[in-house]
Design goal:
Layout lengths: L1 H40 L5 H41 L4 E6 L2 E5 L1 H7 L3 H4 L13 H12 L5 E9 L5 E13 L2 E10 L1 H15 L9 H15 L6 E9 L1 H8 L1 H18 L5 E6 L2 E7 L3 H16 L2 E3 L2 E3 L2 E9 L6 H17 L5 E3 L1
Helix pairs in contact: 1-2, 8-9, 9-10
């Protein structure tokens, strides 16, 4: 309460001092000027006229002084309301001028874990990961060249404790005293991003093996088959079913069966290249997309997979032996539609089972 009284006193005193100073200067100027003039013209000084001039000056200056005082009070109150609004905001607010941070509110500091003196005067790029520097720099340059007034970016910021968090950056450009100032806000969206990634993983990845699921595989297959669009484009599709898995699952239990599937997924990944796509299609069925794969590559990979899967697994101290029957379809020979390619690979897989299992067959 005391500080508020002091603030009110300040805005009352300052215009009063200014008025008193101006009056003193004007009075001195009038007195000296008139006395010099009277001396020069040898005219006696009229004190009444001087007093009237001073009263007239007071009457003229007083309304202007009152207007200035009211404007200063209004501006100070507006500034205090703005500061109160920004400091109490739920988002981090900042100002950026001449490649330096000039203002941050309390929430900004709270989000990034800094003290005010650690941030003011620093380049904004110091607070974000290097990989996002170009993205932010392009946005700033676009605003400065009037190509963009407002933008929203999702970037990664670096907290004082070196923890990287996901933030949403809102920014716009203002003109202050003829100079461009970027004003903006940040929101910590780490929890939201984490939830989105979890939902995406649930939607497109198998929770047991971590491999892409059926939906993810079919989307990718559709993209590859339609994206290439030429007769010379090639890839191979391998449809794999585990022989003996049901018996192992029934004998050693579902927990052992789950561990076995995870081990199978690991071996499949080790048998393929980074550009290939291995997915768990359903149950003990797996689909593999060999990018730029021809008949020769498909045969080599199928032989490698058959040998890897037929190597005994050790699950919970038990040796489990299974095998794989693999069906292969080739694009574009065996179809150009994804459903046809999968169906033909599935048919070839059953042919491999009929041929004695632990082998592969082309459609």
């Amino acid at each position: 309460m005391k500080s508020r009284k002091v603030k009110k006193l300040k805005w009352k005193i300052k215009p009063g001092i200014v008025l008193a100073g101006v009056l003193m200067l004007k009075v001195a100027e009038m007195v000296v000027f008139q006395r010099v003039l009277h001396w020069y013209q040898d005219i006696p000084v009229n004190n009444k006229e001087e007093l009237i001039d001073i009263i007239v000056l007071l009457l003229i200056m007083s309304p202007f002084t009152i207007i200035v005082m009211r404007q200063q009070k209004t501006m100070q109150e507006a500034e205090e309301r703005y500061k109160g609004f920004t400091e109490d905001s739920l988002v981090g607010i900042f100002s950026y001028e001449d490649a330096r941070i000039t203002y941050v509110n309390s929430r900004f500091l709270q989000i990034l874990g800094y003290k005010r003196e650690d941030v003011i005067g620093r380049d904004f790029h110091d607070l974000i990961v290097p990989e996002d520097h170009d993205l932010v720099a392009q946005s700033i340059m676009s605003k400065l060249h009037n190509h963009e007034e407002f933008s929203v970016l999702q970037i990664r910021a670096i907290r004082k404790d070196d923890k990287i968090i996901e933030v949403e950056l809102y920014s716009t450009i203002l003109i202050r005293d003829g100079r461009p100032v970027i004003s903006g806000s940040i929101m910590d969206i780490s929890e939201r991003v984490s939830r989105e990634r979890t939902l995406q993983k649930l939607a497109f990845y198998d929770q047991l093996t971590g491999l892409p699921n059926r939906k993810s595989f079919e989307d990718r297959l559709l993209e590859v088959s339609h994206g290439k669009g030429t007769e010379t484009a090639r890839f191979a599709l391998l449809f794999l079913d585990l022989d003996g898995f049901k018996q192992a699952n029934d004998t050693y239990g579902h927990l052992a069966g789950d561990l076995l599937l995870k081990e199978v997924a690991t071996r499949l990944l080790n048998c393929t290249r980074e550009e290939d796509l291995v997915s768990r299609y359903a149950g003990d069925e797996f689909l593999i997309l060999l990018s730029k794969g021809d008949r020769t590559l498909a045969m080599e990979v199928a032989e490698r997979i058959a040998g890897a899967i037929n190597t005994p697994f050790i699950i919970n101290g038990n040796e489990i032996v299974i095998s794989a029957s693999i069906g292969i379809s080739l694009y574009p020979e065996d179809g150009k539609e994804t459903s046809i390619l999968i169906k033909n690979a599935d048919t070839a897989m059953y042919q491999a089972k009929g041929a004695g299992k632990n082998t592969y067959q082309f459609h």
